[in-house]
Design a protein that fits this description.
Layout: H1 3-22, H2 31-45, E1 51-56, E2 59-62, E3 65-67, H3 75-84, E4 86-91, H4 97-108, H5 118-124, E5 130-134, H6 136-164, H7 171-187, H8 189-196, H9 204-222, H10 227-239, H11 249-252, H12 260-266, H13 269-279, H14 285-293, H15 314-328, H16 340-350, H17 357-367, E6 375-378, E7 383-388, E8 398-403, E9 409-417, E10 428-432, H18 441-449
Antiparallel strand pairs: 1-2, 1-4, 2-3, 4-5, 6-7, 6-10, 7-8, 8-9
Helix pairs in contact: 1-2, 1-4, 6-7, 6-8, 6-9, 7-8, 7-9, 7-10, 8-9, 9-10, 9-15, 10-14, 13-14, 14-15, 15-16, 16-17
The structure holds fe (ii) ion (2 copies).
Length: about 450
Amino acid sequence: MNRQLLAECLTHLQGALKVSALYPEGHPGIQNPLQNVTRGLSTLLEAGHPLVLGIVDDVLAFDEIPFYETDTVWRTIFSALRGRGIESITFQSGIEANEILGILHILKGTDSGETADLATLWKQHDIRHASYCDTLLGDDVRVSARRTYEESLGLVVEMMTELRMGRIPSTRSVIEVVDGMGEIILQDPNALLGMAMLKSYDQYTYNHSVNVSIFCLALGRHLELERDELLTFGLAGLLHDVGKVRTNESIIKKSGMLDDEELRLIKLHPELGAEILDSMQGVDPAARAMVLQHHVRFDRTGYPERLASAEIHPLAEGVGLADCYDALTTTRAYQRSHHPSDAARIIQRCAGAAFRPELAEQFIAMLGTYPVGEAVRLATGEVAVVTAKNPLDATSPVVRIVLDIDGNLLEETRRVELADPSEARRRIVASVNSLAKGIDVATILQVDLKD
Ligand SMILES: [Fe+2]
Ligand SMILES: [Fe+2]
């Protein structure tokens, strides 16, 4: 697109914004600038694709062209978007003057102390040929997801240290941490699911505990569990392997095959974990049951073997599923990680044997067709990493493009919402192996999670 034409249109928009801030609604003084913007946008839209005006890394961008002079020339537009918490506005062909007027009123709303939320205002002004992307809430959730993940990790490290020193960890702080994660999962599970896919092998045991808790909470949300039950499920996920502090570290860290005796010792961890939960005050007995039973399989293989014919808490199988998914998607000394949809397929194959079919199905549905962290090839030939699933359309998640059509790694990855009609040409055609493509999924996910 011609930069000059775009700049002209921005100038008109800037003028109209200034005028609309000066005159009351309906004042004839707004008519000329408004007509200029409408005409400018309509001309640009004749190119046949929607136009996106937004802020990318603190720079105003219009139709993907950066306008660096934000501090001076485009200040009015820039601050209006920022002030409203709008990341971008997408204009579609057919946009009319009254819709643009509505947008102007919304944008200048910060000056007049307008407090209604964007969705309501958008509807009130009947804006049909433009949509907005508001990221303030999203950013908040992402930032708090990261903070909460780190707090949870810190708590697990502290708890394990206390236990090794023979002390009993505080139930209250464990509950607080799970509460925090549950709160975020209920708002938007994507951010924490993304954190759970940033596999840090150095601290496997600790990360694994937090990740399993996240997968349990996300599954619990998907199953629409009551809040209390959801948190108990998350708590069990966090503490499921706590018994391993009482297993000799050399066995836990051993990378080769375990001999029979070592295997016998490691299989004691669910019972040792249950004992630890018994010693903690105020832990829900259901959480204890889930910890004790998380390795008992649907077909009653697994351990402790004495429970083969006992009644198993239904969510204990959920902890087992979450445990299995995290282990499969993490690179370990003895295994290269599986990519997320592969791990989901393995779980599917185990349905009816290791896992209860209905529960495995729900777990896979929770992950989505293209789980967070999955690398996918787009119809354009580009390769992207899934950063958030789209609850309304499983096949159109939010992705970050990492390889161009020639297979070159992009220095600057780009976030794309595949559900956006203007991105129709980018539909997903297949999953690809991120390792083979040299994609560092953790780093890509981190771009979306950075503060
Ligand atoms: Fe375990
Ligand atoms: Fe585990």
